[in-house]
Specification:
Layout (H helix, E strand, L loop, with lengths): L1 E4 L5 E5 L16 H4 L26 H23 L1
Antiparallel strand pairs: 1-2
Length: about 80
Amino acid sequence: MLVGINKDYAIRDVAILSHTETPGLGSKITEEAFTGQFIGLETGDVALSKDGGRIDAITGATISSRAVTEAIQEKMIEIIEKLSN
């Protein structure tokens, strides 16, 4: 994945560079309908809606959706902590 964040620590863009997901199901993590949901979000909002966040999971691919959101949130927290020190 490639995730850009702006100076206010909100997501600027998300790109899935490679994956091994099932074509037509989990592979939807690469589509704008999914990745576009992240744009403008801060760390507290980067979670699936069923987990209190603002990201709608891909129907039938909740595990893939959760993996992407958790990876993005964890890395954002790590980067923000490093930049804040």
